[in-house]
Design a protein that fits this description.
This protein is of the alpha+beta class. The protein has a single domain, classed as YefM-like fold, CATH 3.40.1620. The chain is about 50% helix and about 15% strand. Strands 1-2-3 form a three-stranded mixed beta sheet. The longest helix is centred in the last third of the chain and has 15 residues.
Length: about 90
């Protein structure tokens, strides 16, 4: 794991983060416990944007989910029939 302690961060500053970012995300450790993860701007954009949905400031998780493109191929009518049949089989 690519870690950086709080003590080293205080001592070396941004140079320590930049050096480790070349190897991937940097896990910050404070008092032997994981405290945070530092990503490059590109890594953060890939993580927050995903494939398609755009993240807006203040957007909730539900708003983000609803903004994702529809990928299913089943119609609502077909899904309703399948759910009805499944529920009837339980009774």
């Amino acid at each position: 794991m690519n870690t950086l302690t709080a003590a080293e961060l205080k001592r070396r500053g941004m140079a320590a983060i930049e050096e480790r970012l070349r190897r991937g995300p940097v896990h910050l450790v404070k008092r032997n416990k994981a405290a945070a993860v530092v990503l490059t701007e590109k890594q953060y954009a890939e993580l927050s944007m995903g494939k398609g949905g755009v993240v807006q400031p203040g957007m909730t998780a539900i708003q983000w989910l609803l903004s994702q493109p529809v990928k299913g191929s089943k119609s609502r009518r077909l899904l309703d029939r399948q759910l009805r049949a499944e529920r009837e089989s339980w009774a």
